[in-house]
Amino acid sequence: MAQKPSYLYEIQGLRAVAALMVAVYHIWIQKVSGGVDVFFVIAAFFIFGSFLRKAPPNLGELLDYYSKTLRRVVPSAALVIMTTIVVSLFLMPDSMWRNQIKHALASTLFLENWALAMTATDYLSKGSPPSPFQQLWALAVQVQFYFLFPLMIWLTGLIDRRLDPQRRRVCIGVLVGIVVVSLAYSLYITARNQPWAYFDTFARAWEFAIGGLLAFAVSRISLSQTVARVLGWVSLIVLLTFALFLNVSTLFPGAVALVPVLAACGIVIAARNRCDMAILNNRFVVWFGDMSFSFYLWHWPLLSFYRYATGSFDVSALAGSGIILGAGVLAYLTTWCFETPVRRSALLSRHNIYSLAACVALLALPTVALSAWYQDYQARRSDAHEALSRFLDERAPAPGQVYPPTLIASMDLPISSKDGCHQTTTNPNLVECEYGDTRAERIVVLAGGSHAQQWLGPLKAAAENAHFRLVTLTKGACTLSLDANADYMNYPSCHEWNERVVKRIGEIRPDLVFTNATRGQGTDETVPTGYLASWRALERAGVDVLAVRDNPWFGYDVPECVDLHPDSASACAKPRSQLLARRSPTQAYHLENVRFADLSDLFCDDDYCHPRQGNVLVYRDDHHLTNTFALLQTTRIERIVEQALADFDQVRLSATSLRVAHRLAQLEVTERS
């Protein structure tokens, strides 16, 4: 019995250390720490430990566990989400509202990890203000396993209630199976799509399963106190420092996640064997561990709000300390004034229905706040669309306004994103549409990915003005390239789609194909070999190409930057040398069926590239043009298309003249002979 308190104290201390790790790494080091993985192990350890001390649970006991868990989790989560929503109304950039309303809803439903997985969010994307709801992904995963694992224990108990050892063997077998299958899946999906894997519940299941196995095994592991102390200290040092040497943000939750998981297990085993680590079991750390859950929830929105308020991603030592102190104060108030009264309420403990009703009522708080936010967003979005329509009709900007307004910038897309004429990232089938003068004999094909598609607006206007037929063959994230192994081909469907595009263009035999010419930034800007291969394939089909130099990629969300610096048009500019090669790489190529166009002067002067031109917002994210900006370049696009068509017409005319002259010469020789 003497071991039990020390054991429990050090687990609480480990929670405190994990929470502080997460905060410190987020605020100053700007890396993933592995602290969340410690939470997962401990959560599963307690889930299984609470049931192992008793006989197999019946349905009533299972519901009791759910009731207690909800009373522990919901109060703090509801308060943090509601407060974050309210503060976001005043501090969050307008450009973030559309997506963050979705994240607020997902957080309220404990599904934020899946919302982030769907958007493939880069958790620590430097240069872009982070979502204040992102930290709730870990809580969502925990809540999902708070439901699934007790259910699993109950179901395995139904297999054989007579023999407790048999029940344990079944449960252990299931956990081992989860570790094997989930870890294998985690390795696979992390290699294939790491941003998705990071938030994937199934890719994290093995971490919880190891925590569950630890609950079964820890009492059977006996170590001397000296060995336990060595294990405890080595595990703690590894846990605190390993992320400094590995870029775990891009490696989790694959094999590298074994490091914090096994380190947490090592500390728990050492504590069980009386390692007596004062850094973990002293009174202050244990006290902080009691509110580590709330501290974790609060530190992230405070960090986000600081960045919104200052417009800076970097955090000074003083400001970061203030964030930690503020999160600590809020965690104390949340834990002892809000969570504890609900969790220990005698009234709510009387019946599960009381607990459920109370939790539903608590979650109604962020739901009401979210509803108000959404209504405000809808009204402002309507006003923004009206303002943009007036600007496009009258070309008379209102003072201080940018177009499109940042609130709707992410939705300022080419028409093919709205009428179903732009293929999705995963479908290899062609989607072919026509715009402009659809009866015209002259045909121009727009082919490639979103960076080709973004020129649809001015090309469509040019087709209407110059009376040619515009055919679109575009697909998300798939440039016109015949290099199946290119690192920019992120989806397996791209190569199959490209082969179909080249074949279809050969069947259409257009007068011109409009596509992209370059890829990359600064000194890495190149003409990819896959692009060259596609142009040569089109040359064999007798098709000419107009290849346009790609626009600069800024690396941060431009509308957000403009929101954060409304009084400085140059604050979001970047040096031209960082975004474009000194000379266009297309100058090194001279292909008979390709004409190149360099539009970099639309985005950059001699020294800087500007994501905002006067009152016009050039970018809708970090590298895609707004449809508004593209439409304003109609005259320029129409001119380069007409010039390319005229050049190729002249070439064809000259070739025809040469053939005629050659034939006449042959006839003359024949007549003389």
TrEMBL record:
UniProt organism field: Salinicola rhizosphaerae
Signal peptide per UniProt: none
Keywords, comma-separated and alphabetical: Acyltransferase, Membrane, Transferase, Transmembrane, Transmembrane helix
Cell membrane found in the keyword field: no
PANTHER family attached to this UniProt entry: ACETYLTRANSFERASE (PTHR23028), ACYL_TRANSF_3 DOMAIN-CONTAINING PROTEIN (PTHR23028:SF53)
Sequence ranges assigned to domain Acyltransferase in this UniProt record: 9-336
Membrane-crossing residue ranges in chain numbering: 12-29, 36-53, 73-92, 136-158, 170-191, 203-223, 230-248, 254-272, 284-303, 315-333, 353-374
One Pfam family cited in the UniProt record for this chain: SGNH
SGNH domain sequence ranges: 421-632
Domain of life of the source: Bacteria
Record-given protein name: Acyltransferase
GO molecular function: acyltransferase activity
Keyword Acyltransferase among record annotations: yes
